[in-house]
Design brief:
The chain contains one helix and eight strands. The chain is mainly beta. The chain has one domain: Immunoglobulin-like (Sandwich), CATH 2.60.40.3940.
């Protein structure tokens, strides 16, 4: 599992405390982690996170599954066959994160 550093593309606030973040990251392995920092990202609790592949989607990387615990977001890449993805280093994802 590799820790990733996300790049904040944009962020916005809704009424109240809810925020939406759009982040990009380059995958380093088929099981990566992004850890948000409350002081930096303005989110203490994640209520929704999803990712889509923006570069490098092929039979070796067809899908990215997203899960989270606290402020740690786990990205798991899957191949077309459903096995662990083969990551070459140029595959990128965009994440949408909603939290407060």
């Amino acid at each position: 599992m590799a820790p990733l550093t996300p790049v904040l593309v944009s962020g916005t606030e809704f009424a109240g405390e809810y925020k939406v973040l759009a982040l990009t990251a380059t995958l380093q392995s088929n099981d990566d982690t992004i850890t948000l920092v409350a002081a930096t990202h303005g989110i203490r609790t994640i209520v929704y996170a999803d990712a889509h592949i923006t570069n490098g989607m092929d039979a070796n990387l067809l899908n990215v599954m997203v899960s989270w615990t606290g402020l740690a977001i786990r990205l798991r890449g899957l191949s077309a066959a459903g096995a662990a993805a083969t990551i070459g280093g140029d595959e990128t994802v965009e994440l949408i994160v909603v939290g407060y």
